[in-house]
Amino acid sequence: MTPEGAYIGRSFDSLGLKYEQAFADQRQNQVAAVEELSNRLARGARVLDVGCGTGRPTGEQLCANGLDVTGIDVSQVMLDHARRQVPEGRFVLADLFGDTSRLGAYDAVACLYCLVNLPEPRFVDGLRRLAGLVRPGGVLLVAVPEFQGTEEEVRFVDWTYQPLPCLREDIQRYAELAGLEVERVDVHTESVSRGRPAPGNSLYLWATTRAPTRRPNS
Q1: Model-level pTM?
Q2: CA-CA 20 to 30 A from 71: which of 47, 102, 109, 190?
C-alpha cells in the first residue's frame, strides 16, 4: 500500500455506507455503462472492479450478470461492506498504484470514479496500470467527472477540493499516452445528488488493450 493509498483508505473508512448513499440517486449512467460492459463479455468472464467501494452498484450488477468479479479498494471498511452486500464477489485490499502483481489478468476492468482529480502524469500512470491488469484485447471502462478548470471548489460528501481540469479531449489523450486503443469517450449529464450539489457531466472512456501483433511466417 502506498502512503497516498493508505491516507485515502482511512478517509473512506470514515465514510462507510455514507458514500454509497450519497450517490444512490445518481447511478443511471453508471448502471447503463456496466450493463453494456456485461453484454460485451461471455458469461463467467473475469472482471476487475477497481475502487469497488461497498460493492454497489457495480460489483453487484456484474455478479448478477454472471461474471466472475474481483473488487479492489484501499478502504478496509468499504471492503467489509462489499463482502457483506455482494457475497458472490471477491474483494481484496489493494492499491492500484502499489503492487498489483498478485491480482492476475482479467477480460475487462472497470474503474468508475477512482482516477479523480489527478494531474496528467499520474492519470496516465493509472491508465497504464489498469491496462496491465487486462489481457491483450480486453476492455477498459473508466469514468471520471468532467471539469473545465475554472470550476469553484467542489463539495464531495464530507470534503471540499479544487478540481483539476479534465475534459473529453484530455482523457482521450491520456489513454493514447498509456498505449490504449480508444473506442470512444461518452459524455453524460448527471443530476444533482447529495454527493454532488450541482449538475455536471461525466466522461466514460471505452478502450481496449492492444492485442499482440502476429508476425507473418517467414
Answers
A1: 0.89
A2: 190
